[in-house]
Amino acid sequence: MDHFLYRDGVLHAEDVALPEIAAAVGTPFYVYSTATLERHFKLFDDGLAGLDHLICYAMKANSNQAVLKTLAALGAGMDVVSGGEYLRARAAGVPGERIVFSGVGKTRAEMRLALEGGVRQVNLESEPEMLALSEVAAGMGVVVPVSVRVNPDVDAKTHEKIATGKAENKFGIPISRASDVYAQAARLPGLKVVGIDVHIGSQLTDLAPYEQAFLLVAALTERLRAEGHDIRRLDLGGGLGIPYERSNQAPPLPTEYCDLIRRTVGHLGCEIELEPGRLIAGNAGLMVSSVIYLKSGEDRDFLILDSAMNDLIRPSMYASFHEIVPVAEPAPGIEPRRYDVVGPVCESGDTFARQRLMSPVQAGDLVAFRSAGAYGAVMSSEYNTRALIPEVLVKEDQFAVIRARPTFDEIINRDIIPEWL
Ligand code: LLP
Predict the structure, then answer these.
(1) 385-389 long-range contacts, CB within 8 A, separation 24+
(2) Domains, the chain, ranges and CATH?
(3) Cβ 270 vs Cβ 195: under 8 Å
(4) Of the residues 177, 298, 300, 306, which has the maximum number of CB atoms within 10 A of its CB?
């Protein structure tokens, strides 16, 4: 459920009509709903009520500081995967004790940054990384809590580019080698083993792979405890999918996922950490664009928008589906039409949807891409010297620009011309 509904014939974000935002900031833009962000966070937080837990929002999904602050105010921790994300979380006021540092290739400089500023735990992904962190921490005279990310070799049954839990993926250490790696971690200075970490992929629409992975983690917890390790935290990653195509998709609900967690690892007495990103931010955001032209091709109609693949890359990158709806509510019974929905960028890959059946629109109309709050703005670029589009946050009847559209001067003046030119 989200808070983007038609009211008086116009699509609203909470109590704000989208044309009002379009008039204020121009198109295209991203708009996020505070109530939806909060609601989604609470689904996890309430879902694990009674179990010691911390929901560490995977801020890679949408890292605007206004979004981070909204969630942090509810008690969220953050899952960060780079020095930049770490600093951004801190800038948004998140204390180090609520930040988990994940990622497959943390540099020593990034490790130092987190150790200086304080970190709840570092999730280690390989032996060389473990040695590096030990050296950095010992050199700074600190002891850092660590979990090791295990790769359970489970098929998450999702898009190949976002599956992470198979042996062929670059993530984690093979679960079969866990005993050796934990023994080594326990011997190294500067590290304190506190838990186990697992994350098998993103946009999972089936609970079975989670069940497989969590049962393996439960068995590993018992084994590592028997080997003398103080396993007190389980970081179970993120990845729960959202219904991009509402008409034919019903991924498991967060409550079902939380019940599975209770069933599979609840008896171990561990503190549970989750790292959801998409489920919190995805359906809390829209991308709103204007139709520039309607063009008739040989055998199809093209809807040419003012947004493009550089603004929302998911359709080109993963062939992913985003619902596209007119901002003016279609009259009941109106005959839908088929369009190829495209942007102005100079490649055929700049296509949001092919032969999409949707309510008819005209040049000048506003359209909204649903489920664009996660992996939308954060993955955008300035390809074709197109300015990054603004982000707007709505709370009830208020809205605020939370990232402004840069001017072309700002963009162009970032280039530095060498002396010899
Ligand atoms: N934890 C770790 C270690 C991750 O690598 C990820 C996502 C998450 C948590 C959060 O997963 P989520 O709950 O958001 O599914 N750009 C792609 C998604 C990439 C996901 C990368 N890792 C997309 O647009 O579909």
Answers:
(1) 385/411, 385/412, 386/308, 386/310, 386/311, 386/345, 387/411, 388/311, 389/28, 389/29, 389/30, 389/287, 389/307, 389/311
(2) 4-31+282-412 (2.40.37.10), 103-274 (3.20.20.10)
(3) yes
(4) 306
Ligand 1 centroid–CA 163 distance in Å is: 9
Distance of CA 244 to the CA centre of its chain: 14
What stretches of 206-323 adopt beta strand conformation (E)? 233-235, 271-274, 285-296, 301-305
Give the total residue count for the chain: 421
Predicted confidence (pLDDT) per residue in 248-292, tens digit: 778 999 999 999 999 999 999 999 999 999 999 999 999 999 999
Which two three-digit tokens encode residue 348?
A: 């055929």
346 is catalytic: yes
Cα separation, 176 vs 150, in Å, equals 9
Q: Is the CB–ligand 1 distance for residue 282 below 6 Å?
A: no
The rounded distance, in Å, linking the Cα atoms of 111 and 208 is 35
Question: Is the distance from the beta carbon of residue 239 to the nearest atom of ligand 1 less than 6 Å?
Answer: yes
The pLDDT tens digits for 78-136 are: 999 999 999 999 999 999 999 999 999 999 999 999 999 999 999 999 999 999 999 99
Q: Is 58 in the pocket of ligand 1 (CB under 6 A)?
A: yes
- In sequence order, the β-bridge partners of residue 201 are 163
Q: How far is the CA of 201 from the centre of ligand 1 (A)?
A: 7
φ and ψ at residue 400, rounded to 5 degrees: -140, 140
* Pairwise CA distance, residues 101 & 159, whole Å: 25
pTM of the model: 0.97
